[in-house]
Design goal:
With 712 residues, this protein is α/β, with parallel strands linked by helices. The chain is 38% helix and 14% strand. Helix 3 runs parallel beside helix 10, helix 16 runs parallel beside helix 17 and helix 23 crosses helix 27. It is elongated.
């Protein structure tokens, strides 16, 4: 019925056969799922307004998986898993509300596709938001398992400890499991390999349920791969493997019973490979008749519904009893469709709700300049802040490339933290930027609070898929249910010949991603206050830390070294600061300007301003999103002349965007055009220090711009 990889781990205590009530429930719900698919096709003029897919052909494996899940568990379904969802106990009505993008859609309030659930509900497994699940979901799901294992190690108990969802009140407590559902075609994604690598490396409590129907839209399995998921998984040492007939409910139930017991006993991850027929369309937008030919008839021979019918007759169920179950399913689907059709649409006025969860820090608190405190370098302020957080918050952990072990980061920004807090809390990852970023979504969903590091800004690109699809959209598309708490540290900027892969500036790219916050401190005190606020914020925060400011070794950056604030000091995100004020008399006589900048720009501007004594205000933005535009407008209106300064190549940058906004909102207060200055518009920073110097802004270039601006 099913096969296991060697050595088989099937304890005698595992019950692999459904009881009579489970057989009945499976039959009724399989008919329910089939009736839903039939109705959606029959009413396609209504139901196909928004794209959707159904489980038709996959019902047996999906129901079997759902029946083994408990309220303590976590699930990451994929877009074909509507039978899985009704198997958990969701009503067809609830799924239809999402199908029609209705207001009361319990997952997203009408914001995302059918069978894209987000669920926090008592008595049900938790289902965090995820994207359309074509491979990307493997990393956040593995992050959930990683977070569960970490929290168990810290507390000696699971983060969600309760009894089974479908069991009676006397059912024993169990340890939680994560189920990641995925199609075989999506297993070819590189991010899936990253997830499997971490699952076996850390022996995580996760089941990868691979539903293989031999199709990926119109591409066949033989066009896409030379091996199926079961064969592919053999390369991951420590990954237990099972093969089941996914069209046979009994075989699926038995195989998953073994898989769940294996993972609940904390023996490591399991991959279950289930062959299924694809009997419906790929999606409502890709019709099966366009490309399937005779293949559809072949798949119909494996229909799980008549197979289940025959099994139940063999078990002693009567045709009359089965007909009654089928009739109940049909009546429920028809009634629920009419209810959903009549349900209200979302209020258009709510379209912008839940971009972010409300911030935890709304005002500056704590001691910025405690008596007797010594000055600290920015890099040390960062280290001390992480140390404070790890000491204060047991749910916090810190990971990335080379931050653990002896090195403690290539800039020593995590020095000795692994020795102090242990390898479960501060650890090295493989070269896997996608996992580093995407796993934080899973960590957040289970209550762990991840601080992660991308080694250099130039290395963040493999992680952007996760940042955009999984982190940035989660709060909005889950209607506020699943904001992602994630602090992503990124050393950035050019410094002393770092060359093309260690010197780039990326803030403009990040700022096109809605749903994330971007912070950029310029001194040690701000580093400490902003980093703690970023950790406490319930939303994804990317913290850009300029390498050239870490040690204040670059001439002119001495002020980046400040008195170190006390532990617990916080600065709210989205508040700019005046790094240097203009002389009030020169301001009154109209002889001044303001430089709006951040990071290294603060020090180029301050150095350049020495040639214009008292005439230059420097506004340090500190946070680029949310942007303190009120402070920008107020500064521009004070002075009438403004230079927007950045280290990035100028063309199409955040700086140019900001300059355009200033031109629009402050036009009547401007006494000169809005000036901008940035790096040369080239694809990379050259290695040679003289070439680097030629490409980047510096104090002399800023001074020349200020001279022209003040001369207007």
């Amino acid at each position: 019925m099913f096969t296991e990889s060697a050595p088989p781990l099937k304890p005698a205590s595992v019950t692999t056969q459904p009881d009579r009530a489970t057989w009945q429930r499976a039959y009724r719900l399989m008919h329910t799922a089939a009736e839903m698919a039939h109705l959606f096709e029959e009413k396609k003029a209504v139901t196909a307004k928004y794209v959707h897919a159904t489980a038709r052909g996959h019902e047996a494996i999906q129901l079997a998986a759902a029946f083994h899940l408990q309220a303590i568990d976590y699930a990451a379904p994929y877009y074909r898993d509507d039978a899985f969802l009704i198997g958990l106990g969701l009503e067809p009505y609830e799924l239809m509300l999402q199908l029609m993008a209705k207001r009361d859609d319990p997952f997203s309030g009408g914001r995302t596709y059918y069978s894209h659930p987000s669920l926090r509900r008592a008595g049900f497994p938790t289902i965090p938001h995820q994207s359309s699940a074509t491979g990307m979901q493997a990393i956040p799901a593995t992050g959930m398992a990683h977070g569960i294992k970490y929290l168990e190690s810290q507390r000696g108990a699971a983060p969600k400890q309760t009894t089974a969802h479908h069991a009676g009140p006397d059912a024993p407590a169990a340890l939680p499991v994560v189920v990641c559902s995925i199609g075989d075609g999506a297993m070819t994604e590189g991010e899936v390999s990253e997830a499997l690598q971490m699952a076996v490396l850390h022996e995580l409590p996760i089941i990868y349920l691979v539903q293989d129907n031999d199709w990926g839209i119109s591409a066949t399995g033989r066009e896409m791969r030379t091996m199926n998921a079961y064969e592919f998984a053999a390369g991951f040492k420590g990954l237990h493997r099972l093969q089941v007939d996914g069209a046979d409910f009994q075989a699926s139930y038995a195989g998953l019973a073994v898989a769940f017991e294996h993972v609940r006993a904390r023996r490591g991850p399991v991959l279950v490979h289930a062959k299924c027929p694809l009997m419906g369309h790929h999606t409502s937008g890709v019709r099966r008749e366009w490309y399937r030919g005779d293949n559809l008839a072949e798949h119909n021979l494996q229909d799980p519904l008549p197979r289940l019918h025959q099994q139940m007759l063999t078990l002693g169920f009567t045709e009359t009893a089965l007909a009654q179950l089928a009739a109940e399913a049909r009546a429920t689907v028809e009634a629920d469709y009419q209810r959903a059709l009549a349900a209200p649409a979302p209020d258009p006025a709510t379209f912008a709700n839940h971009e972010f969860a409300p911030p935890a820090v709304t005002q500056e608190t704590g001691e910025r300049t405690p008596a007797g405190a010594e000055k600290a370098l920015m890099v040390d302020a960062a280290l001390h802040t992480i140390d404070d957080i790890l000491r204060e918050f047991p749910e916090a952990l810190f990971y990335g490339q080379d931050v653990g072990g002896e090195l403690g980061g290539v800039f020593r920004e995590a020095a000795l933290l692994a020795k102090k807090y242990g390898d479960a809390r501060v650890f090295n990852t493989p070269i896997q930027e996608a996992y580093i970023v995407g796993s934080t979504a899973g960590m957040s969903a289970v209550g762990a609070k991840a601080i992660v590091e991308i080694q250099f800004a130039d290395y963040i690109w493999p992680g952007l898929n996760q940042l955009v699809e999984e982190l940035s959209k989660s709060c909005y598309l889950s209607n506020g249910q699943f904001p992602v708490q994630s602090l992503i540290r990124v050393p950035i900027g050019a410094y002393g010949g770092g060359g093309p892969y260690h010197s780039g500036s990326i803030e403009s790219t990040l700022l096109t991603i809605r749903g994330i916050k971007v912070v950029y401190p310029s001194n040690a005190a701000d580093m400490k206050g902003l980093m703690r606020a970023a950790f406490l914020d319930p939303n994804p925060v990317v913290m850009l830390e300029h390498k050239g400011l870490y040690w204040s070794k670059v001439p002119g950056t001495e002020d980046a070294k400040t008195v170190e604030p006390a532990a617990g000091y916080v600065i709210p995100l989205g508040k700019a600061a005046i790094a240097q004020a203009a002389d009030p008399q020169k301001l009154a006589s109209g002889e001044t300007c303001v430089v709006v900048t951040y990071g290294m720009g603060v020090y180029w501007a301050k150095t350049a301003s020495r040639q214009f004594t008292g005439q230059v205000e420097v506004l340090d933005l500190r946070t680029l999103n949310p942007l303190d535009y009120e402070a920008v407008e107020a500064a521009v209106r004070r002075h009438g002349k403004v230079l927007v300064l950045t280290e990035e190549p100028l063309m199409n940058s955040f700086a140019e965007s900001l300059a355009g906004r200033i031109q629009r909102t402050c036009f009547q207060q401007l006494d000169a055009p809005v000036f901008t200055l940035g790096a040369a518009n080239l694809p990379a920073i050259a290695l040679n220090v003289d070439l680097e110097r030629q490409m980047l802004p510096n104090a002399d270039k800023v001074a020349a711009a200020l001279d022209e601006l003040l001369g207007w």
